[in-house]
């Protein structure tokens, strides 16, 4: 981008200061992270295929290799997941190197935008990562001129990003040119999905062979500095007038990247072990799962991961034979299922049990993941699923209290 003396630099400097002022204002309400307040930590690897036929002019992109990646997915404004928001994916890439002195980590930030010109330079709120495209929004400077990076989803795990592998294609383009694929990014959450404390610095940690333009530094640096400044300790006054430091609590779960599942919870007077005994007996499912009319067979390994429950759904004589498969399980604490009922489709179901006083709290989270059920508007889908699962919890509580499964 050409920098005209006294023109663009002054404009970008003013815009940068304006963004910084906005960030300082947001930090009053969100001291730790004024934007992208809640996230999901991910890890994986980036396989670079290189660009031998049409080099980009950035060494890192033009050479093949495999890089370790730590990442954070988040929603920019922190809006409820039922509302569209600007999606963000921050990558910390550790480039591989054949020499004795490998380059340091590189931080690359992507945001949901359009894919064509001019949409690739415009932020685009999205409800879900499915179908979303992301770019660096501002180009890097390479040997041959400006280079924009983009990510396009190839495949998603069922349910949320925390439930499996997220595969994206890495692309590059000149500001007005066509996209060229140059790699594949694979990301996944750990066994206990959570946010990450990583702080990303795309201006200080740049990919080998890439540089930030001076105008992008003037635009972004003041707001980054404001966002990452350590917040002053808040003071809360007790009724007697003596100040005390507040106790910080995390009230929000990590962003999952997908529409939030329909979730209902209920307190049970029964201990967790009694509830788990009912859940662990596959032959009892038609007694408490609303919609399951009969159980035809249960794998001997149930409820181990990969085992199946063969059931029928519907009311006689209009019943459908299908099965549910265990996709994750922690004995006594949680069970995750992929429940099938074609031609209606498939749903992901997560059941968790937490100790709570003299009993426990049982939670069921569910949503459609494949088939016609996904075509139902989410607000209507959530209402139907929640009503059914509230009755499911009532039945499960009665069976646990009555000693079923012993």
Automatic annotation (TrEMBL):
<dbReference type="GO" id="GO:0020037">
    <property type="term" value="F:heme binding"/>
</dbReference>
<dbReference type="Pfam" id="PF10604">
    <property type="entry name" value="Polyketide_cyc2"/>
</dbReference>
<dbReference type="InterPro" id="IPR020835">
    <property type="entry name" value="Catalase_sf"/>
</dbReference>
<protein>
    <recommendedName>
        <fullName>Polyketide cyclase/dehydrase</fullName>
    </recommendedName>
</protein>
<feature type="region of interest" description="Disordered">
    <location>
        <begin position="223"/>
        <end position="267"/>
    </location>
</feature>
<dbReference type="InterPro" id="IPR019587">
    <property type="entry name" value="Polyketide_cyclase/dehydratase"/>
</dbReference>
<dbReference type="InterPro" id="IPR023393">
    <property type="entry name" value="START-like_dom_sf"/>
</dbReference>
């Amino acid at each position: 981008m050409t920098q005209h003396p006294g023109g663009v630099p002054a404009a970008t400097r003013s815009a940068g200061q304006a963004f910084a002022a906005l960030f300082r204002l947001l930090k009053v309400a969100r001291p730790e992270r004024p934007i992208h307040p809640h996230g999901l930590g991910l890890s994986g690897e980036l396989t670079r295929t290189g660009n031998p036929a049409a080099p980009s002019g950035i060494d890192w992109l033009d050479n093949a290799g495999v890089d370790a990646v730590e990442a954070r997915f988040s929603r920019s404004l922190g809006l409820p997941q039922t509302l569209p928001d600007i999606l963000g994916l921050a990558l910390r890439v550790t480039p591989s190197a054949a020499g004795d002195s490998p380059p340091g980590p590189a931080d690359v930030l992507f945001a949901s935008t359009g894919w064509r010109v001019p949409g690739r330079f415009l932020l685009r709120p999205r409800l879900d990562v499915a179908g979303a495209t992301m770019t660096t929004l501002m180009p890097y400077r390479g040997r041959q001129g400006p280079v924009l990076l983009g990510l396009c989803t190839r495949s998603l795990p069922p349910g949320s990003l925390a439930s499996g592998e997220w595969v994206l294609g890495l692309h590059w383009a000149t500001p007005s040119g066509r996209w060229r694929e140059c790699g594949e990014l694979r990301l996944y959450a750990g066994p206990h999905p959570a946010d990450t404390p990583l702080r990303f610095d795309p201006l200080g940690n740049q990919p080998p062979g890439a540089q930030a333009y001076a105008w992008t530094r003037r635009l972004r640096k003041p707001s980054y500095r404001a966002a990452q400044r350590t917040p002053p300790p808040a003071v809360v006054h007790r009724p007697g007038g003596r100040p005390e430091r507040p106790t910080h609590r995390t009230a929000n779960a990590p962003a999952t990247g997908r529409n939030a599942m329909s979730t209902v919870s209920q307190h049970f007077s029964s201990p967790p072990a009694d509830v788990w005994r009912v859940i662990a007996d596959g032959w009892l499912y038609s007694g408490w799962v609303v919609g399951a009319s009969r159980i035809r067979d249960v794998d001997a390994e149930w409820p181990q991961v990969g085992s199946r429950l063969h059931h029928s759904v519907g009311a006689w004589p209009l019943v459908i034979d299908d099965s549910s498969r265990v996709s994750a399980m922690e004995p006594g604490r949680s069970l995750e299922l992929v429940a099938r009922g074609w031609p209606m489709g498939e749903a992901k179901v997560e059941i968790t049990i937490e100790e709570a006083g003299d009993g426990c709290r049982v939670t069921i989270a569910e949503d459609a993941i494949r088939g016609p059920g996904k075509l139902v508007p989410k607000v209507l889908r959530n209402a139907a699923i929640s009503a059914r699962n509230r009755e499911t919890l009532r039945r499960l509580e009665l069976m646990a209290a009555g000693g079923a499964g012993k």
